[in-house]
Specification:
Helix content is about 45%, strand content about 15%. By secondary structure, it is of the alpha/beta class. β11 and β12 form a beta hairpin.
Length: about 500
């Protein structure tokens, strides 16, 4: 029964957190050298199994391409390791001798990590490496449709870590995940931080858990080919990127925008690179398959090939079809082609100039990709800078594959499988998440400036003592002097009134 599954899953989660907490307490004593040796062993072990894990992921989820998932596993292990290998994450990590400030790193503790079905092994490897590098423990909740491959990736990492001297239990996971167990994991009293990669509902739950959390939003990435671009090269990059692992990376291009005066060249190159253009009837057929309700992507098309998706829609396409394209003019939740589609499907928007392109890009981002990424192909650096300044995205990829470039594969960005969307997307960071996001820094600061604190002046404080007789007599004399006619004033009465006022003033 479902209740039994929930109870088993919750109990397993609690045990994993308890073991992780105990292991992390022991791990706190490890030196930077010991930590680095463990991280390297784990990265090497995961890299060595990149292909096997890719095979498992495709077989279990039915999504993506084995050769492409292998590359993602390699980026998550080798590239991520190389990017953090020399970072200081233990003890004193920085010292400003001029200002006499010493920075000391300390970990969060136990990290809860949520893994998506689209990138189940690579994301698990990536999150494990950055957690271990920063002396944290990690407990993973895999996606229910990718449990076996995610657990195998974590098992490989765990065995390598223990063999290198890490405390057993430092890497934990739920082998029978349920929504209830995942929810309780994020709220567990011994969990200090959440790394949530997944749908909008999951990210919202992470931010609502009461714990510090890194969540990432969706990526409805526009790809604009500006009139000065080298069209043939741009189109090849875009199609290679869009079809990489059948579009399962969140930074993959989702809509194609082309200047009108290069439309014919772009269409020709798209066809030359395996794109199939849908006619009006075929477009309507595919729209029914893309979404099940307005704005709700059909999960059955995620990570599937163009041929499989076309067959689902009852459309006959050539055997070498890599991408399905339809011209589009509208944007909205009720326009299936305009939403984020984690599959090789493109809407094609034709614009008159860069100003119209800006509007289309912003409308697409506002529909569901604010803060994520934008791809631009141009030979005009001024245009690139203009877009970079005004687009509501955290990363803009210029003249490269957006899917691979955003995660650091073809750019100088930090290699990462979790891409922040910043305040544009309601996230706490706009960075590519890496090890530095999983440490706290405490600071020891010496005094370097002298300051003189002035002594209190002779002004009356609100609770000052004014009740000595000389002060009262002086006040009474001043009052009598100012009042007319003098003969009618009773000094004793005035004195009593002054004393009463002072008494009330002192009690305020």
């Amino acid at each position: 029964m479902q209740l039994d599954n929930d109870l088993v899953s919750i109990q397993e989660m609690r045990q994993a957190v308890q073991r992780a907490k105990e292991a992390q307490q022991a791990y706190l004593k490890f030196s930077q050298q010991q930590v680095d040796e463990i991280v390297k062993k784990v990265a090497d072990a995961a890299y060595a199994k990149s292909y096997e894990l890719a095979e498992m992921a495709v077989e279990e989820t039915g999504m993506g391409v084995i050769e492409h998932k292998k590359i993602k596993n390699e980026v998550a292990s080798r590239d991520v390791y190389e990017s953090i290998a020399n970072e200081k994450t233990v003890g004193i990590i920085n010292e400003d001798k001029n200002n006499k400030v010493v920075e000391i790193a300390y970990p969060y503790g136990v990290i809860a990590a949520i893994i998506p079905t689209t990138n189940p092994t690579s994301t698990a490897i990536f999150k494990t490496l950055i957690a271990l590098k920063t002396k944290n423990a990690i407990v993973v909740s895999p996606h229910p449709y990718a449990v076996k491959c995610t657990a195998e990736a974590l098992k490989i990492c765990s065995e390598a870590a223990v063999e290198a001297g890490a405390p057993d239990g430092l890497i934990g996971w739920i082998s029978k995940p349920t929504m209830d167990a995942t929810s309780q994991l994020m709220k567990h009293q011994d969990v200090a931080l959440i790394l949530a990669t997944g749908g909008g509902g999951l990210v919202k739950a992470a931010y609502s858990s009461g714990k510090p959390a890194y969540g990432v939003g969706p990526g409805n990435v526009p790809a604009y080919i500006e009139k000065t671009a080298k069209v043939d090269k741009a189109v090849k990059m875009i199609i290679d990127s869009k079809t990489f692992d059948n579009g399962t990376i969140c930074a993959t291009e989702q809509a194609l925008i082309v200047d009108r005066n290069i439309k014919e060249m772009a269409v020709r190159e798209l066809k030359n690179n395996g794109a199939y253009f849908l006619n009006a009837d075929e477009k309507q057929q595919l729209e029914k398959v893309i979404t099940l309700a307005p704005g709700k992507l059909n999960p059955k098309i995620v990570g599937r090939s163009a041929e499989v998706i076309a067959e689902m829609a009852g459309i006959s396409v050539p055997a070498d079809t890599r991408l399905l394209i339809a011209e589009e003019t509208k944007i909205g939740k009720n326009i299936p082609f305009s939403i984020e589609k984690l599959a090789p499907i493109f809407p094609l928007y034709i614009v008159n100039d860069k100003e119209e392109a800006k509007k289309v890009c912003v409308d697409l981002l506002n529909l569901g990709g604010r803060g994520h990424s934008l791809a631009l192909h141009t030979n005009n650096d001024q245009v690139a800078r203009e877009f970079a300044l005004i687009m509501p995205v955290s990363r803009m990829l210029v003249n490269t594959l957006s899917s691979v470039g955003a995660v650091g594969g073809t750019t100088g960005l930090k290699p990462s499988l979790t891409l922040g969307c910043g305040s544009f997307g309601g996230n706490i960071t706009s960075d590519n998440l890496t090890a530095k996001h999983l440490i706290n820094i405490k600071r020891m600061a010496y005094g370097i400036k002298d300051i003189d604190i002035p002594k209190p002046g002779r002004t009356c404080s609100r609770k000052g003592n004014l009740q000595n007789e000389n002060e009262v007599d002086q006040i009474v004399a001043e009052v009598i002097e100012k009042m007319k006619p003098k003969g009618e004033i009773d000094p004793k009465l005035v004195s009593e009134m002054v004393n009463e006022v002072i008494k009330n003033y002192q009690t305020i």
